[in-house]
């Protein structure tokens, strides 16, 4: 993608991906799903996951899978609230940018 992806947008994307799995999901699967939207390395993803955990937006637990332990991530109630805020902000922001591209005038209250 040509545009830079800032920390807030990365947080929003990761929360949205994790939220799709009610019981939680693991890092590799999160990486694969995020890559459907933006290019992302695992070395970029794990600091995002740690930040979201530190901010109490994600809870973490381990589960055995085929003789290995996988770390799973699940959205907390605080994470759901943050995700809803991100969704609202994204709709407003993307609507304004789309309006500019489509030549719609920007109202002063929207600027």
How does this model look, in words?
By secondary structure, this protein is α+β, with helices and mostly antiparallel strands. The protein has a single domain (7-104), classed as Winged helix-like DNA-binding domain superfamily/Winged helix DNA-binding domain (Arc Repressor Mutant, subunit A, Orthogonal Bundle), CATH 1.10.10. It is 53% helix and 16% strand. The chain is built from four helices and three strands. Strands 1-3-2 form a three-stranded antiparallel β-sheet. A hairpin with a 2-residue loop joins strand 2 and strand 3 (68-75). The longest helix is centred in the last third of the chain and has 25 residues, at 77-101. It is elongated. It holds the Pfam family PadR.
Helices and strands in order:
Layout: H1 7-19, E1 25-26, H2 27-34, H3 42-54, E2 58-65, E3 68-75, H4 77-101
Antiparallel strand pairs: 1-3, 2-3
Helix pairs in contact: 1-3, 1-4, 2-3
Key features of this structure:
Tscrpt_reg_PadR_N; elongated; three-stranded antiparallel β-sheet; 3 strands; WH_DNA-bd_sf; Metal_resp_DNA-bind_regulator; PadR family transcriptional regulator; Arc Repressor Mutant, subunit A
Summarize the structure.
Helices cover 53% and strands 16% of the residues. By secondary structure, the chain is an alpha+beta fold. A hairpin with a 2-residue loop joins strand 2 and strand 3.
CATH class: Mainly Alpha
Q: How big is the Rg?
A: 16 Å
Helices and strands, in N-to-C order? HEHHEEH
Per CATH, the superfamily is Winged helix-like DNA-binding domain superfamily/Winged helix DNA-binding domain
Average pLDDT, rounded to a whole number, is 91
DSSP summary: helix tally: 4
* CATH topology name: Arc Repressor Mutant, subunit A
What is the helix content? 40-55%
> What is the assembly state of the chains in this entry?
single chain
The major β-sheet equals:
3 strands, antiparallel
Q: Can you tell me the CATH architecture? A: Orthogonal Bundle
Protein name: PadR family transcriptional regulator
InterPro entries: Metal_resp_DNA-bind_regulator (IPR052509), Tscrpt_reg_PadR_N (IPR005149), WH-like_DNA-bd_sf (IPR036388), WH_DNA-bd_sf (IPR036390)
Organism: Waltera intestinalis
């Amino acid at each position: 993608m040509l545009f830079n992806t800032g920390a807030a947008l990365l947080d929003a994307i990761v929360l949205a991906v994790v939220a799709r799995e009610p019981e939680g999901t693991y890092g590799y699967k999160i990486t694969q799903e995020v890559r459907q939207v933006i290019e992302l390395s695992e070395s970029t993803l794990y600091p995002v996951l740690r930040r979201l955990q530190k901010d109490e937006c994600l809870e973490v637990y381990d589960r055995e899978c085929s003789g290995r332990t996988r770390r799973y991530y699940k959205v907390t109630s605080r994470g759901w609230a943050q995700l809803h805020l991100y969704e609202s902000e994204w709709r407003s922001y993307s609507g304004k940018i789309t309006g500019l591209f489509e030549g719609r005038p920007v109202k002063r209250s929207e600027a």
